[in-house]
Here is the input.
Amino acid sequence: MAEAMIEFQSVTKQYQSGQAAVDQLSMSIDKGSITVFVGPSGCGKTTSLRMINRMVEPTSGTITVGGKDVTSVVAADLRRSMGYVMQSSGLMPHRSVLDNIATVPRLNGVSKAEARKRAEELLDVVGLASALGKRYPSQLSGGQQQRVGVARALAADPPVLLMDEPFSAVDPVVRDELQQELLRLQRDLAKTIVFVTHDIDEATVLGDKVAVFAVGGKLAQYATPEEILRAPANDFVASFVGRDRGFRHLAFTASDGVAVHPVTTVARDASAAADGHWRLVVDEDSRPLGWTGPGTGRDLIPGGSLFRAGDTLRRALDSALSSPSGLGVVVDNDGKAAGVVKAAEVLGLIESARQVRRGNL
Ligand SMILES: Nc1ncnc2c1ncn2[C@@H]1O[C@H](COP(=O)(O)OP(=O)(O)OP(=O)(O)O)[C@@H](O)[C@H]1O
Ligand SMILES: [Mg+2]
Here is the structure.
């Protein structure tokens, strides 16, 4: 059994008479995991999230963090001890990116120089160029602003990260990048993350566990994504999860049968290919950097998502479809280029997997 970090015990929030915003919520959130609250608008996701750091006080029930009743901690201290990322990045418009990131460490008494240094490191951690540190939030793209929001939430190195629809204001491509980035970060950081979204796809991609909320603030199902897709607890969850579960199931279908083909690699400073074939550009450790190919001259075309042996069919398809060459880059456990997968072949496997499933129905 995983260790519990956050526990809701019969927690109810009633803003006014009538229907509760959150109704008798009991759940245990595992330490070091990503737990996603998902559900339609108004079902109490934000309210539940905000009760964890006492931005909202429950009407009844108890919430503990690390075994401690949150009401025993001064609300301001509690808030500062957890990272919080919201939908609009919530950055202060008149302060530079670095100053925004350094805010909470400064409030915690860290020296200005130290806080700045940490802020600079965090820019790198969330994949932003250091030159962006001097800019103001309005001079960044939406996706960049969200990355700054994540950096700011991480600045005090809190064990708990609360994220309320942090990626919903950016376009789907950037959103996908931010999701992958968060998963990558989490592999190193192992924070306890509570993530709110209304998007079931985002929930199943990110969540170690997913809590589906129904209108009226009732917890409809709390389980692994795989279980929620395979065995929805009731009609509400089934309809919320959607009819095209066949495709979503791909996220859990092993990619064992996918053929890995050899790929021609070249060093970064090699002269451009003149023969019209795509070549994978790698660094001195054979790690993929991007592609050169027909008409690209000496420019490096960024490479799309990577695929590892053992990943799912969905990841295999993503890697092929996001690559400029139509070839998904396969890397080994050291991140070295190990070959490519072809979109047409992955799609063929998906189709046969679908037919097998149909045959089983
Ligand atoms: N400050 C408030 N005062 C009164 N009612 C509120 C307040 N905040 C939220 N509510 C009500 O509580 C219910 C739950 O709201 P909450 O913001 O938690 O939903 P949500 O699941 O986060 O929705 P969304 O997906 O739209 O963000 C809603 O009916 C909402 O109108
Ligand atoms: Mg909300």
Summary: The mean pLDDT is 87.
